Amino acid sequence: MAQKHTKPNFSPSQAKDVVKRLFRLTASEICSLPSYDDQNLYVAVVEGGEYVLKIMNSEDSKNQTLVEVQTIAMSLLHQNGLPAQTALPTTSGQLMSVEEMDCGYGCQKYLVRLLTYLPGITISKAPLTPQLLYETGKTAARMDQILQELQHPHLSVLQREKFIWSLSSVPLLEEYLNVFDGDPLQEVVKDVIHQYKTTLVPKRSNFRKCINHGDFNDLNILVQPDETDGYRISGILDFGDMNTGYYIHELAINITHMMKEHPEPVEVGGPVLAGWESVIPLNEAERDRLYLLVLSRLCQLLVLSRYTVKLHPENAEYLMITSKRGVHILRHLWELGKEKVEKVWFQSAAQFSH
C-alpha cells in the first residue's frame, strides 16, 4: 500500500522522451490507464504496435530483483500459451530501466518497463456465466502449474514473509483490527482469524506448495467476446503480489474476487472449483480449508481497504464500494456456515459438465 508521495506522475512529454530514449520508438498517442500504486500509460507508436509504459512507485522500485522475477514469470506464462504481458527489452537489452524524475516530491528513482498491451475489458464488466467462471478457475490452476517451472538465481525473493496481502499472513491482520472498532463485524473478523490460527496453521503442512500470482482478481483478468456469444480470457495482469504460497491460496483468492462481481456469490464457487480441478484436483486437507481461506481473503480485503481509507481519504468512495459488497458476502457466508457453503460448491462442481 503505497504512500501518496511514492506514486509516479510522469507528464506525457516525459513519458514520450523515455519511450524514445530507451526503446527508440516514437509515441503517437499516450493516455492514462487506471493504477492503484503505480503509473500505467497506454502508448501507441508510429512504428506500429501498442504498449503499456509501466512506471513503478518509488518504494517498489527499490526491489529490482523482485520486479525482475515477476517480469520473467510473465514471459514464461506467455511462452506457455497464457495471455500475460511481456516486457520489450531496452536498446541495451535490459527488461527494465531505473529513471530519476522529480514528480513533485524531489528527485526519486522509478523502475520503468514497456509492456505489451493486451486487448479486452476487465472481467468485472462481463457477464459471469458458469462457463467463464470455469475458465477462470482452469486458467488460475494452469498459471500456478507453469510458475512451478520458473527459474531464477534469486527465486527466494518470493518468500515474502511479512507480506500483508499473502494468504499466509492472515494473523497479521490483528494489528489493524481497530479499523472495526464499534462495528459488529469486528467479532466475525476476529473469529475468522482465530479459526485460521487454530485450525488451518496446524494443517498447512498438508497443502501443496507453489508460486502464487496472488491477486487473480476481477480487475486483473481481461476478457474478449468469443465466437459463441460468451467471453474468453484475453489477459492476465499485475504480478506485483507474486509470492511463494500454496495452490489452495490461488483458488481461494480467485473464488473470493469473482464473488464480488456475481449477484449470487455462493454460486460462484462450484464452476471455479470445477475449472481448477480439471487441472489440479484438491487433496483432502485443501478441500477442508477452502471455505475458511475464502473467509480469510474477505477479511483481508475488508480490513486493509478500511485501513487504506484512513491513509488516503481521497480514495474513500472507490474503496468503500468494494468494501460494502465484501461485508455483505462475508456475513452471508458466515451465517450459512461451512457445511452449507461446501455442499453448494462441491455438488455444483461435481455436476459441472464441461
UniProtKB/TrEMBL annotation:
The keyword Chloroplast does not apply. Keywords: Cytoplasm, Kinase, Transferase. Its main location: cytoplasm. One of its GO terms (molecular function) is hydroxylysine kinase activity. InterPro entries: Aminoglycoside_PTrfase, Kinase-like_dom_sf, Pseudomonas-type_ThrB. Pfam families: APH. SUPFAM superfamilies: Protein kinase-like (PK-like). It is found in: Cytoplasm. GO terms for cellular component: cytoplasm. Residues 36-265 form the Aminoglycoside phosphotransferase domain. The keyword Translocase does not apply. Its EC number is 2.7.1.81. It catalyses: (5R)-5-hydroxy-L-lysine + GTP = (5R)-5-phosphooxy-L-lysine + GDP + H(+). Belongs to the aminoglycoside phosphotransferase family. Catalyzes the GTP-dependent phosphorylation of 5-hydroxy-L-lysine. This is Hydroxylysine kinase. The gene is HYKK.
